[in-house]
Amino acid sequence: MSPEQRRAVLLDAQAAAGVPVGAYDVQITEWLAGWDWPIVATIASWLRSAAIHAANTEAGVERTLRHIAAGRVPAATHEAVMSVDVAGCWRVFVTTPARTWPEYVWQPGSSVPTLAARREALAGLGFEPAPGAVWEWQEDDLDAEEDPAAPVRLLAAIPVQDSGSEGVPTCS
Known about the structure:
Blueprint: H1 3-16, H2 23-33, H3 37-54, H4 58-69, E1 78-84, E2 90-95, E3 103-105, H5 115-125, E4 127-129, E5 136-140, E6 153-162
């Protein structure tokens, strides 16, 4: 996703939240648009979630729904992030307003989970990929400055939405 697209997502989330965008907000939005997509998506998701929870008035909810229906805010309100931990276990978690994020962990030593396995894990958590969404991969090489031989960590993220079911995590 390009910086212009990330900027548009952030501005749409601010508009849906009813945030008046001033000159300083535009500067911050430009700065944030330079960040990686999973971070931008999480920030936009938090903005939308905060707006929905803070604007529980009938007018506030109606305004947010109008923005979503008009396509100005993606229907997906969460971000699923997948990574591998130090024990070699792949895990996927969904960023939600809840204090504890729903999480699924594959068995140790598993190879990178297939698309089908990821969909099954998300379904078990009560989520599904947003229409047209794809997994975006990036590597975290923060330790490389201190140790160039340090392994990189792979992260993947995808916008998700509630699937309409409560979800019951299953083991792979």
